[in-house]
Each structure stands twice: as C-alpha cells, then as structure tokens.
Amino acid sequence: MKSSIINLFKISLSVALLYGCNMSSPEEIVEVSETSNTTLSIPAGFDFSTHQKVNINITENAAYAKYDVYAYYDASGKTPTEAELSGKLVFSGVPKSGVLKQTINLPAYFTKVFIRRNENQNISLTAKQIANKEVNFNSSEAKSTANKTAGKSANIDSDGDGVLDADDAFPLDSTKAFILFTPSDNNIGTIAFEDLWPSTGDYDFNDVAFKYQAKVFLNADNLVVGFDFAYLVSSNNTTGVNGIGFQLDNILPSQIESVTGSILTRNFINLNANGTEANQEKAVIILTDDVRNIEHEFTHLQWGTYIKEASNFKVEEVSVKFVDPINTADLGVAPFNPFLILNIETKYQVHMNIQNDPRYPAGMVRKFEVHLPFMSATSYISNSTFNWDNHIFNGTLDGLKQHDANYISENGYPWGIHIIGDFKVSKSTIRITDAYNFFGAWAESGGVNFQDWYTDNPGNRNSGLLE
C-alpha cells in the first residue's frame, strides 16, 4: 500500500483544484497595507478557505446497488468518460437501509459531482449540481445502461459482511469494505504555514508546507474503522524546529485504539499508550516533532546562515484505528484540524537575537502552535500563558488579541492556508500576492472571485517566483 502512496506523490497532477470561503458582513473591512504600494480590504471573518464541504445524500430504492462518487471538473461542462474519471474517486459505498451519506471536501469552484450507480451491472453515470453545499440523489434519477461486456456479477461475499466481493475493496476482511479519499484516490492536498505566530511574517507561506492524502476505511455500514494519513514535506524554509500534527475535534483519545507511524526524536512530545498525544482533551495525532526527522536530501549551510530549503523528503504515513466504528460526521473531513508546532534550537536564539522571546525558551517545549484560521487550538496552547510584544495569552485565549486567537493576524492575514490540490509555494520572502496574481482580488472578495487563483491556468501564476 505504501508504494502506491509514494507513487501518488511522484505523479504529475492534471487537475487544478481550489478553495471555498466563509463570508461575513461586507461592511466589516480590514484595511491591509500589504506592500508599500498595495492595500487590500479583506472582509472581517474571512477564513481564507479554498474548499467547500459538500454533503452527499443518496437514497436507494433497490435492495442493493453500489455507488461511486467522483470529483471532476471541466470548464466546458462536458460529461466525462469512465477513463477521465480515473483517479477522481472520492468515495464508494452500498446504501444501508436505502441511505448513503458522506461529507466530502471539494475545491470551491467545483459546481457538480458525478455519481456512478451499479445495480447488477446496470450502470448509470449522473452529473449532480451542488446546491447550498449539498447534493441529493435518488436512484429513480439513474438512467442505467447494461454493461454487456461484464456480464452479471456473481453473488459472492467471501467475508460475509453483506457487500459483494466485486464491490468490496477488502473482500477478505469483514471489518472493512470501502474507502473515502481526501482529496481523491489519485490526488493530493497541500497545507502551508507561516511560522512566526503571533508575529506577522513575510507571507510567502513556505516556512513549512506539506502535501497529503487521507484514506478513511469504512465498514459495510459505512462507518469509520480507521484511516491512513500520508504526507510529504515539500518546503522547510525556516531555522525553527517545527513539528506537524492534527486534532480530531470531535473524537476523544479513548476512542482511538492505536496510532502508528509518528516520527518523534526531540523528546518533548508525550504519548498515551495508544499513540495519541498525552494530556489532550481531544484526540491529537502528531505526525512528527521535527520535519527534518523525515528522510530527505538537504544540507545545513555554514553557521550564520539559514537552513537550506528541504528537498526530496520521503513520503511518510500515519495509521489510526478506532476502538469501535464511528460515524464519518464525527470524524470530520481530512485534513481535520492541522497545525504547526513551533520551536527553535538554542544555538539559533543567539544567532537570531531572540533569546528573550518567550516563544523560544532553551530546549524544546510543547507550547506554541499555528492552526488554520478559526480552527481551535489543542489543550497545550489553550493552557499556556505568555506575554510577548503586547500579545497576551492567559490560557483561555480570551486575553490574547482576538485576531491572534483565531489565527488571523491584525492585518487580516492567516498564518496557514489549505489547498485541495498541488500548491506551489513562493520562493523565500516572495509574498503570495506577488507570486499569485489574483490572490489579492480573491481575498478582497471574501473568496467569491478568482476561486482558481492558485491553479496553473493562464495568468494565475508567476512561475519564476515559485519554488
């Protein structure tokens, strides 16, 4: 399985993907002097989200039918062929008691999904519009065409879970039957962070960036039994010792049976027996406590200079199993609540003249995090206290400036951004607004306009400014 994951990250992606938004009142504006000659007016409350969470609701009238749901975009609006849908699968399932429901992450500019229904080799492919972030499909809408080359499927169910072998991703394992992918079975997402929270940075979003794909394993009842989270660090332009992880906001640590694959060498992360992080109210999964732990090819330059950008990192994977199957609504949609753990090595404190910065005490500590906008912090940062440069943190987030507590800077910018697709980060010190021509207009519109600003469509990127 890992070899297929590795191949995933080596392929050249062919589909441009994008974001959604969380609009607030257009009268509430933050004026941002983003460069000496550029001012952005960002709607207050805009969360810089580039995706939309779409609820898929399927009603089946027959006793048994297999469904595959695909994320496919074509500007012309044409219906894709089966070959064109290859690699675009988001989830599969067989309705239970006539109902199949899942929530998926799609780029904001996607307007439809494609639903493939297979009832004993009578196959239909239906394009369904996304309306108010929902898709409702009834099997009576299906216009089936018999697959004459396949013949009738044998009613064989080797593991006895109620799903036919031909429809079962794990025909010999009764605990698993289907997979829900984020973003899809042959695509990746990207998460990029600035690392100076609560100070503002240069907004190049290349301090730490990683690509990911999640595979959520479902049983015959379409409940979650576990998941794999594969990731590839794509940028590390910082002197910091930065870890990465994610929080499952609706899951308790006790609901996790095991977590395997975490890479920990810095000795400041404490784990429970099941592999979740200790002393956390919610289930927290640490991928690594230092991205440089991951096998890679990069060099430390001479003393007095920054660490060279990391390159050729190895694809890693963390696997999570649950004690009892859970609903996908409780799990949430990958990448869940990702965050960056901030730290810095003692020798760099002197070099960077920040030895009095309480964010960076001598040695490694588990105290400071960067999350995506408006995402909740873990128990570690919620229970921290510090006062630095008028950024007061009293352990409840109430004392910290509200914009900092929401992971939105005073000038309206985030410290992290999530893209459903292969996002190319800016070169060091190159602002994202310089590298991407329409980022500013997208942000000013609250995510309504230029929703494909980060794709390789003509005019979007200044390729010479990208890593």
UniProtKB/TrEMBL annotation:
Residues 227-454 form the DUF4842 domain. Pfam families: DUF4842 (PF16130). It comes from the Bacteria. NCBIfam families: LruC_dom (TIGR04456). This is DUF4842 domain-containing protein. It comes from Polaribacter glomeratus.
